[in-house]
């Protein structure tokens, strides 16, 4: 018998007495989502979360066969792709889903940016979201090396050398990332540990905070759709089950897209890394690092009295910091500042898209 | 000073010291130890005649890659094969008679000088001797 009075009998009653789940159900039944012309953007957070769960599930399956040493990593992925029943499917879905996850997370972030949903009281929701995006990129970077192929080897060689340009602590950072002076089997083991333990632990914490904050503040209604502008409150849709079922339609479609991509374009394994072979022509990182890669290509050896690479790192670092601090750069009180930030956001997106396109369209050296 | 303030101070500093005593070994553990590397000053890069003129090969110089180039006149040159930009391994482009880094499109001439693209410094050049049918590379 609970202190609140009688509870339902049977298994449901037994569970209720021990967990108090009905209180949670009551909260869920009251949760609503605003309905307006920008509601479609609300589905992107759920889609990102869904693709992340696909990554966790397929990642666990890959762990059962993967071996994280320079002598065995490539062969173990080859074994997964060619011998393990449906291994090709699991690995291809993991790779495709990783790329879609980063893409959807980027679109999610940009939609939040344009709808100004980061403003008070959602600054911390944005902050945790931006940090989660960095974690997703770290997942991508660390996971890229794990098959130990030539492309991955040189992408890691370049990626881990980039912090080397930072004054004073640069060499330490490079050694810390590589687990030594060069990219070796030690780097592979370190990246494996980061990919399957460190990053998931950090993501769990940040994701929990992010979701709790979304739950606490509810969906942000864009200014153009607000009661103050339209003269009436926006219509709402119950979250459970209406919005969740619509989410589920998107997730089902995502499973279909992933399965189709994996079946039609199984993820390539490439050639086993040879640390004593030259970097092959046409080398490039994952598409979401393409714009940085292209920028480093464009920067000459020396700019403004400093090495071009250092200038690149400085700009990337400041850009990342600005991204995290967006809610504090535009609190909404100054409309002019807000407009400037929006224009800047579009300009950065245009540059990133153009630089990424150059990586894929330009032929030859 | 109140007794409670003193106790809080002791408790706080003890807690801080305990955190440090846990974090310090972890931080040191995460920093890879310096493994002394055998100093290589000499390596056999190829057998004489193995490379045709206007051709090159990457060979192992200690734990680093190095590049042996046979120029169009038949002479040998050797360089550290690690690009001075972001550490990719360079290669020889016979069509351009230059050394090329595929990662960011950097070029060096046959004296190792960075001539175009992002590399900020020249490649380290090694000395080459041909003796007893072997092409021997050593640090200058």
Summarize the structure.
Chain A has 365 residues and is mainly alpha-helical.
Care to describe what's here?
Chain A has a two-stranded antiparallel ribbon with strand order 1-2. In chain A, strands 3-4 form a two-stranded antiparallel sheet. Chain A is globular, with a radius of gyration of 24 Å. With 365 residues, chain A is mostly helical. Chain A starts with 9 loop residues before the first helix and ends with a helix. Chain A is built from 15 helices and four strands. In chain A, strand 3 and strand 4 form a beta hairpin. In chain A, helix 6 runs antiparallel to helix 9 and helix 12 crosses helix 15. The mean pLDDT of chain A is 93. Chain A has a domain of 230 residues: Up-down Bundle (Cytochrome Bc1 Complex, Chain C). The model of chain B has no long low-confidence stretch (mean pLDDT 93). In chain B, the strands form two sheets. In chain B, strands 1-10-9-4-3-2 form a six-stranded antiparallel β-sheet, with no helix packed on it. A four-stranded antiparallel β-sheet of chain B has the order 5-6-7-8, with no helix packed on it. Chain B is elongated. Chain B is an alpha+beta fold and 140 residues long. The chains are: A mainly alpha (365), B alpha+beta (140). Chains A and B meet through helix 7, helix 8 and helix 12 of A and strand 2 and strand 3 of B.
Question: Can you tag this structure with a few keywords?
Answer:
A: 365 residues, mainly alpha, Cytochrome Bc1 Complex, Chain C, two-stranded antiparallel ribbon, two-stranded antiparallel sheet, 3% strand, B: 140 residues, six-stranded antiparallel sheet, four-stranded antiparallel sheet, 1 helix, 10 strands, 36% strand
């Amino acid at each position: 018998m609970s202190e609140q009075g009688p509870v339902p009998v049977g298994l449901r009653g037994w569970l209720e007495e021990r967990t108090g789940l009905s209180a949670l159900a009551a909260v869920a039944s009251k949760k609503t989502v605003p309905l307006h012309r920008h509601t479609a953007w609300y589905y992107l957070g759920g889609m990102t979360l869904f693709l992340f769960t696909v990554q966790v599930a397929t990642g666990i399956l890959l762990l059962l066969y993967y071996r994280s040493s320079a002598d065995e990593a490539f062969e173990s992925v080859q074994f997964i792709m060619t011998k393990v029943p449906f291994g090709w499917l699991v690995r291809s879905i993991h790779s495709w889903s990783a790329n879609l996850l980063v893409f959807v997370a980027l679109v999610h972030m940009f939609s939040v940016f344009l709808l100004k949903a980061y403003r008070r009281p959602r600054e911390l929701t944005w902050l945790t979201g931006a940090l989660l995006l960095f974690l997703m990129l770290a997942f991508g970077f660390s996971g890229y090396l794990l098959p130990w192929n030539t492309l991955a080897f040189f992408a890691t060689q370049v990626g881990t050398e980039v912090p080397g340009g930072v004054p004073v602590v640069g060499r330490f950072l490079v050694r810390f990332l590589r687990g030594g002076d060069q990219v070796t089997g030690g780097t592979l083991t370190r990246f494996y540990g980061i990919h399957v333990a460190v990053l998931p632990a950090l993501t769990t914490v940040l994701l929990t905070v992010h979701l709790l904050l979304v739950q606490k503040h509810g969906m942000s209604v864009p200014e153009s759709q607000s009661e103050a502008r339209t003269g009436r409150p926006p219509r709402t849709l119950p979250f459970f089950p209406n919005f969740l079922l619509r989410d589920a339609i998107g997730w089902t479609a995502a499973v279909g897209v992933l399965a189709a991509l994996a079946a039609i374009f199984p993820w390539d394994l490439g050639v086993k890394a040879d640390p004593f072979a030259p970097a092959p022509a046409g080398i490039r990182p994952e598409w979401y690092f393409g714009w940085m890669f292209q920028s480093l290509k464009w920067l000459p050896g020396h700019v403004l009295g400093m090495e071009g690479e250092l200038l690149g790192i400085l700009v990337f670092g400041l850009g990342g910091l600005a991204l995290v601090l967006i809610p504090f750069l535009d609190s909404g009180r100054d409309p002019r500042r807000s407009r400037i930030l929006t224009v800047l956001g579009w300009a950065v997106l245009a540059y990133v898209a153009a630089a990424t396109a150059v990586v894929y369209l330009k032929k030859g050296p | 000073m109140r007794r409670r303030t003193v106790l809080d101070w002791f408790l706080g500093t003890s807690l801080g010291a305990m955190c440090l005593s846990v974090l310090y070994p972890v931080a040191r553990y995460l920093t890879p130890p310096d493994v002394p590397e055998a100093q290589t000053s000499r390596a056999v890069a190829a057998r004489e005649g193995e490379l045709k003129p206007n051709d090159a090969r990457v060979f192992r110089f200690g734990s680093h890659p190095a590049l042996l180039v046979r120029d169009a006149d038949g002479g040998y040159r050797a360089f550290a094969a690690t690009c001075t930009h972001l550490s990719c391994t360079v290669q020889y482009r016979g069509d351009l008679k230059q050394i090329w880094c595929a990662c960011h499109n950097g070029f060096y001439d046959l004296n190792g000088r960075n001539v175009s693209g992002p590399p900020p410094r020249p490649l380290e050049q090694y000395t080459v001797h041909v003796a007893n049918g072997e092409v021997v590379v050593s640090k200058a």
